């Protein structure tokens, strides 16, 4: 993708960055104050896990319908509505737990937060990909990097809130207000939205077609493998360092910090690598790095080696989701449907991965269970070719979703660094 100097796109870019940052705030606010929610409701660890399933279920239901919603309303309106729902629901979690002490109300609020967040995330990736094309340079990894920055800031705010004994009702309410201001202010700068196709049977046809497209399904499997590798680190690294290496709990927390820092760094700098080397090569190097880090962590001889392995692991998994989202959005007219399909498949890793790894760890040990994730990382390496750029479809071609492009209808391609072809950024109009 050629770099195109377009100052008019910069406010749009900054607005999208604000929405990604705000999404990180929502996620980390709950995680950071989860002990306070547990104490307010008087729950055991197992009951907390069941409570969090409400949010997971809401997310999974929402992400599978998000493609249709984005096509009906457009990515901008879906993003704003999803973020608003997630923010208000987050405030509801604080009120339901701290004010009413109700598990039912808190569970309902968590389900609504999951629904809003999932739709928000799908719409953000569609909107981010549109802005990336208009900007003319790879920025999707940096957008996800700002999400990670948001999680760090949210976690820090949570630590301060816990240290000062700030009520979670007030804390969650204040954070909801910050998120609403960021999202509604950022959305004002968004450029024209090509994803809204209105109502009608064409939306269902596009979404159904996306579930039958081999490339889209392969992208989903690629994300599934790498998302499991990312989620496994987030869920189990701290415990693996404590149990597998016999380290203190503080060392486990430090190890997770090393992983997150490496991942955030790679996302902030990954756009340059993509512009220079192309998606396929970067994806394959990323998968190789993730596999090397994972295996080195499992079989390493010392805690020092394990920490170095976490750097490789974090660098490896950082770019896979942004790359897949960009690849799924190559065609603006089909972006919403394809991003929805890829996200739905990827969510399977976050939904089923943690409990399956836990059950496997009971039988073969936690470190050995983590090693099994390497099989899916190898799968992602093999499937990396699916991220190669493809041609977009013109609006005229969308009158019949299954209609093939003719040579006269195709834009003039330009050569990508990885030897593939894509449409020049300057010729794409959102």
Q: What does the secondary structure layout of this molecule look like, with pairings?
A:
Blueprint: H1 10-41, H2 45-73, H3 75-99, H4 103-135, H5 140-163, H6 168-187, H7 201-210, H8 214-244, H9 249-277, H10 279-299, H11 303-317, H12 320-328, H13 335-364, H14 366-371, H15 373-382, E1 413-415, E2 421-423
Antiparallel strand pairs: 1-2
Helix pairs in contact: 1-3, 1-4, 1-5, 1-6, 2-3, 2-4, 2-13, 3-4, 3-6, 4-13, 5-9, 5-12, 7-13, 8-9, 8-11, 8-12, 8-13, 8-15, 9-10, 9-11, 10-11, 10-15
Q: Roughly what fraction of the amino acids lie in strands?
A: under 5%
| Strand segment tally | 2
**Overall 3D form:** globular
In the residues, how many domains can be counted?
A: 2
List keywords for this structure.
430 residues, mainly alpha, Growth Hormone, Chain: A, 2 domains, two-stranded antiparallel ribbon, 15 helices, 75% helix, disordered C terminus
Overall description:
The protein is mostly helical and about 425 residues long. The protein folds into two domains: about 1-195, Growth Hormone, Chain: A, CATH 1.20.1250.20; about 200-390 and about 400-430, Growth Hormone, Chain: A. It is about 75% helix and about 0% strand. It has helices spanning about 10-40, 45-75, 75-100, 105-135, 140-165, 170-185, 200-210, 215-245, 250-275, 280-300, 305-315, 320-330, 335-365, 365-370, 375-380; strands at about 415, 420-425. It has a two-stranded antiparallel ribbon. Residues about 1-5 and about 395-430 have low confidence and may be disordered.
